[in-house]
Every structure is written in C-alpha cells, then in structure tokens.
Amino acid sequence: MPNDNPACAECKAKKKRQHVSPSDPAVPTPAPTPAPTPAPTPSPAVPVAPGAATRGRRRATEAAEAAEAKHKEMSPLAPADSGDELSSVPSETEQKPVKKSTKRSRRTKPATSQNEIPDFPADSLQAAATMSVNLVWARELETNLEVLQGNIQTLNEAHRATMASAQNILRTVDGWIQTWAATGR
Q1: d(C-alpha 17, C-alpha 177), whole Å
Q2: CA distance 174 to 95
Q3: Residue 55 near residue 62 (C-beta atoms within 8 A)
Q4: CA distance 7 to 15
Q5: Using one digit for the tens of pLDDT, what is the confidence trace for 40-72?
Q6: 145, CA 20 to 30 Å: which among 39, 57, 68, 121?
Q7: Over the Cα atoms of the chain, what is R_g?
C-alpha cells in the first residue's frame, strides 16, 4: 500500500510522519516529477585496484557494459530508421531503474597491511633514527636472552643433581624401612 501522505520539511527534520490529510489546503502536494535521464557519455574503463570491494567492481563493470552498449547503439555503422520498431524500444538499462539500498551499514576500517608498521615516521631521517634505536634495543634483548639461556642450562644441571641426590635419599630411607620391617620392630 503506497503512502499518499509524504512528510513535510518540518516533519522530516523531526523524523516523524505528518498526520494531516493530503486534501488539506494548508499542505501542498508535490507534483510527481519524471526522473532525469543522464546524457550518455562513454567513459573509459577504470582500472580496479586489487582489494577493492566486490560491490564497487560490480558497479564499475555494469557501468562499463552500459556505456559500451550505448556506444554500440549510437554507432554510425548501424543507423536506426525512424520507422524501425526496434529503435523505439528502450534498452535494458533504461527499463530497470537502479535501486539504491536504503539500509545503512557501518563501514569497516581498512585492514592494515602486514608490511605496514603503525606509527612509523614518514621522514626518512626520523625513520632511520627510530630503526637505530630499535636495533640497539634488539641487540640488548639478544644479549639478555643469551644470559637467560645460560642460566636455564645451569638451573637444569643443578636440578638434575638435586634429583639424583633426592633419589639417593629415597633409596636410603627405603633400605632403612625394610631393615626395620625385617627385624620385627
């Protein structure tokens, strides 16, 4: 059921529907205006960057096909007779109006490339200084990791020695318990 009661400018600003009947003389009813048809201009094929949205590529492809079809219709090789019945038939692109989505969706942030470094300075001198500072910290981290690995190896050796001593103590205690059990006490 079409809505015969369009919102006035004031109601549009309030985002509410107008509840006045269209026959009310205070509210002028707008006359329907025909949709303007754009002048056919052949557009060159637009190169599509890799990673562009699929919807954008589809629209660009459809626009290129429509321009190509218009160009073929207007070509001087096949002039249309004024009495030709096919020349009065609108083309497929003219028959189907383009429907735009009224649904609003959130835009996603473009994904940063894995090669891009966030907050990396654009100035080459400052970038070199940043890299040298990072290199100093990387070397210091490397030496600290080598010291840690040495300490872990020392700790592992000490742990093995401790476990061997604990095994000797357990054997001694087991032997003592067996001796007590054998003597009857």
Answers
A1: 95
A2: 98
A3: no
A4: 9
A5: 665 555 555 555 556 666 677 777 777 777 666
A6: 121
A7: 41
Query: Which tokens sit at 105?
Result: 């969706």
> How far is it, in rounded angstroms, from Cα 11 to Cα 101?
23
Q: Which of 17, 68, 11, 7 is nearest to 43 (CA)?
A: 68
Contact assessment for residue 141 and residue 147, using Cβ atoms and an 8 Å cutoff: no
**The whole model's pTM is what?**
0.30
150-163 confidence digits (pLDDT tens): 999 999 999 999 99
- How would you write the chain as a 3-class SS string? CCCCCCCCHHHHHHCCCCCCCCCCCCCCCCCCCCCCCCCCCCCCCCCCCCCCCHHHHHHHHHHHHHHHHHHHHCCCCCCCCCCCCHHHCCCHHHHCCCCCCCCCCCCCCCCCCCCCCCCCCCCHHHHHHHHHHHHHHHHHHHHHHHHHHHHHHHHHHHHHHHHHHHHHHHHHHHHHHHHHHHHCC
Count the Cβ atoms, other than its own, within 10 Å of residue 130.
15
Instruction: Enter the tokens of residue 2.
Output: 């079409």
Between CA 175 and CA 182, with CA 176 as vertex, the angle to 5 degrees is 90
